[in-house]
Amino acid sequence: MDAEQKREKRMKKNEESFRELWDNIKHTNIRIIGMPEGEKRGKGTGKIFQEIVAKNFPNMGKEPLTQIQEAQQVPYKINPRRNTPRHILIKLTKIKDKEKILKAAREKKHITCKGTPIRLLADFSAETLQARREWHDILHVMKGKSLQPRFLYPARLSFRFEGEIKSFTEKQKLSEFSNTKPALQQILKELLSAEKKKPQPETKIPQMTRLTRKGIQ
């Protein structure tokens, strides 16, 4: 292995470490998308979140949600050049409450706040979001073949094949595995072949931003 290869390997390891650190920080976060700016005025972001949960998931259970640790709008200031509303970030103290709410949101599918459709999503680093997007085509094909694919946190693809659960974080590893399974190789052949032809992106260290207490009401 020459110096350039060692450097690339070191950079990739650093990138993965930073991404893992940042996703761990965001592990209990919920991101609210689509909330009109007018609905946010005069109310704290934490209060808005509690109202959304109460009105959309009345049967979630009698056990109260854990305390909201942090809540704020991002970006903190409104950009007059953008018409899209800012997101709201909610940081809960327990991961089980985040998972409970997001599961209910997936099952209900249509979440609203005073008649306005909104979305409740897990909060990931930009790098993890991109990693998840890169699995979407394969995820779609696997669903069509009843392989029961799903994401494991944060960006690991899991599916059932020949009675066993398999999971991968890299397409290269999936490709190597599919080479030993002709049936799976046939299903994924075109997608993995197209992936090999793509130029490799430049390795970058992700920039970390911080969810602060500024703006909590």
TrEMBL record:
Pfam families: Tnp_22_dsRBD (PF17490), Transposase_22 (PF02994). Residues 195-217 are annotated as: Disordered. Belongs to the transposase 22 family. This is L1 transposable element RRM domain-containing protein. GO terms for cellular component: ribonucleoprotein complex. PANTHER family: L1 TRANSPOSABLE ELEMENT-RELATED. One of its GO terms (molecular function) is single-stranded RNA binding. InterPro entries: L1_C, L1_dsRBD, L1_RRM_dom, Transposase_22.
